[in-house]
Specification:
Helix content is 48%, strand content 15%. By secondary structure, it is of the alpha+beta class. The chain has one domain: Butyryl-CoA Dehydrogenase, subunit A, domain 3 (Up-down Bundle), CATH 1.20.140.
Length: 228
């Protein structure tokens, strides 16, 4: 018989697992890993509202994508164009960034799998007599290691020609040059920290769903068990 068991700790672990997976996925897909040095506006590119030149803009560069501004002279309009600069994996600007993409993709795939499975932990608490929480916690720990490897390798690619074109001639491995780090990089770091927190917290979720109070509720014949 299937028992639906919902506890405060198990629900919090499930929500955190979903948030972490989405945060890492959004960061990986974003082009805001590096914020390039300011690009001056064209002398013909006049701001219609103020009548003067618009402020310089900062192009951004991601692992495989970029954002830059394109001016439409006939309409005096400026659009920001974002998209992948690499049409295939081999065109990613640096070998280090290719490795980063592989490690991050592996970690995100594991996190997304765990996030999907975590939704069903209310009904299924064990697989082949092993706690599903412990298995998912172990997978989250492995995913966290992949994410760390990717984030460590990423700055080693700052010396590639693509990064230099955005960050200036002083950019090199682990040196930003004229660039600054974008929100996507910080989001990836924050998601990695939360990944390990989820891995540790999964043990608390397992304890909560197998506590004596839960067993008492099961013995009383209840199918829906909600505990704080």
């Amino acid at each position: 018989m299937c028992h639906v068991i919902v506890t405060c700790r198990s629900m919090l672990w499930t929500l955190l697992s979903i948030v972490v997976a989405f945060a890492e996925l959004i960061a990986f897909m974003s082009a805001d890993w590096l914020i390039g040095k300011a690009k001056p506006s064209s002398s013909e590119d006049v701001d219609n509202r103020t009548g003067g030149l618009p402020e310089p803009y900062h192009p951004t560069l991601g692992i495989y994508g970029r954002c830059t501004r394109i001016s439409h002279m006939q309409f005096s309009r400026r659009d920001t164009l974002c998209g992948p600069y690499a049409e295939n994996f081999s065109e990613i600007a640096s070998g280090f960034w290719q490795a980063t993409a592989i490690f991050l993709a592996m970690g995100i795939m594991i996190l997304c799998t765990v996030a999907f499975v975590s939704v069903f932990t209310m009904c299924v608490q064990s697989i082949m007599k092993k706690s599903i929480f412990n298995v998912c916690g172990l997978l989250q720990g492995i995913a966290g290691l992949f994410l760390i490897l990717g984030l460590i390798l990423y700055p080693a690619g700052w010396g590639c020609q693509k990064a230099i074109s955005y960050c200036g001639p002083y950019a090199s491995a682990y040196k930003l040059g004229d660039c600054s780090l974008g929100w996507a990089f910080y989001t990836a770091i924050g998601g990695t920290v939360l990944t390990f927190i989820c891995a540790v917290f999964s043990a608390q979720a397992e304890i909560a769903t197998s506590s004596d109070k839960v067993q008492e509720e099961i013995e009383e014949g209840k199918n829906l068990i909600c505990l704080l």
